[in-house]
Write a structure and sequence with these properties.
This protein is α/β, with parallel strands linked by helices. It is built from nine helices and 14 strands. It has helices at about 1-15, 15-25, 30-40, 60-85, 105-115, 130-135, 200-210, 225-230, 280-295, and strands at about 45-50, 55, 90-95, 120-125, 140-145, 155-165, 165-170, 180, 190-195, 215-220, 235-240, 250-260, 260-265, 265-275. A five-stranded mixed beta sheet has the order 4-3-5-14-6, sandwiched between helices. Strands 7, 8, 11, 12 and 13 form a five-stranded mixed beta sheet that branches. Strands 1-2 form a two-stranded antiparallel sheet. α1 (about 1-15) packs across α4 (about 60-85).
């Protein structure tokens, strides 16, 4: 029946029996016979034929849509079975947002590694655009990223958490005694952003347009470097997730960041391509989501 289903899909996709026959390298009459045999097997009419034209019946529309999922799952099953038989090594490739301060990602990696010690894990770090480019070009399987655009149906988009944005600032700064801070209150203090040289302009534009940051902008390559700059009084650091590490408890203060006295929120999500939902990818996403839920 699977071969009959694929012939049926070809007919619908090509909107033509003759073109489907060319695509499948069989005769037009053979394609027609296989589709009719499928209809007899199911006991329903999938195509309403009118002279040389046809249209999908309601049952045919449903069967076509669901059969695409079925064949995609079957193809992936066959691929993974062959990989196991040949001993091919699967590597889970994950992208992490370099500016995120929480420990959920590290804990998820540790839990996955404990469950699957034979599955290698490769971790890439980057800012928002760098991670999306890695995912788009199939250089990673899944990313932990912030949400800066509308969700796309090309990806599985799982919201992990929605949290308030904060700033970290030197405890010596007078602003450290405030309960919250507006972006305008920071206009004379440099804002430290974490970005590679290629992404600096993009990150600066985002924080100015979306956050309303009007401060001078300076950059750090990673979170540790940025926090050392904060300790040195060079500026403040927008940060989300987690709590302030104990080694900085006396030297850094963390304040809620507001815009016009309204706290700024941000969504953090797990993203992966909808056509690349292997068992390990989905399992890691579930572990990661559980880590975020445990920290609420």
């Amino acid at each position: 029946m699977l071969k009959q289903i694929k012939y049926f899909q070809a007919v619908v996709r090509c909107n033509s029996f003759s073109k489907a026959a060319e695509e499948c390298y069989i005769s037009q009459s053979a394609v027609s016979q296989q589709v009719q045999a499928l209809e007899r097997e199911l006991g329903v009419t999938l195509l309403k034929r009118q002279n040389r034209r046809f249209s999908l019946t309601p049952a045919g529309e449903y069967f076509y849509r669901e059969s695409l999922i079925l064949t995609a799952d079957f193809d992936r099953l066959c691929k993974e079975t062959v990989q196991i038989a040949r001993g091919d090594e699967f590597t889970l490739r994950i992208g992490q947002l370099k500016g995120y301060g929480g420990l959920e990602f590290q804990k998820a990696v540790a839990e996955f590694a404990q469950k699957h010690p034979d599955v290698p894990i490769n971790i890439e770090t980057g800012n928002h655009e760098e991670l999306y480019e890695l995912l788009r070009t199939d250089n990673v399987d899944l990313i932990l990223n912030d949400q800066r655009r509308a969700f796309s149906s090309e990806y599985v988009n799982t919201v992990l958490t929605t949290i308030d944005c904060h700033i970290e600032i030197s405890a010596r700064n007078a602003i450290a005694d405030m309960e919250y801070v507006n972006t305008g209150d920071l206009r004379n203090i440099p804002c430290i952003l974490i970005a590679s040289k290629k992404q600096r302009e993009h990150e600066q534009n985002y924080y100015r347009e979306i956050y309303g940051i009007i401060s001078p902008i300076i950059f750090a390559e990673n979170l540790d470097e940025a926090r050392l700059m904060v300790v040195g009084g060079e500026g403040y650091l927008p940060v989300e997730g987690g709590s302030l590490p104990t080694q900085y408890a006396e030297s850094i203060a963390r304040l809620t960041l507001c815009r016009n006295k309204t706290p700024i929120h941000r969504n953090y999500c797990a993203f992966w391509k909808a056509d690349n939902s292997g068992c390990y990818i989905e399992e890691f996403a579930q572990i990661l989501k559980a880590q975020f839920e445990n920290n609420k």
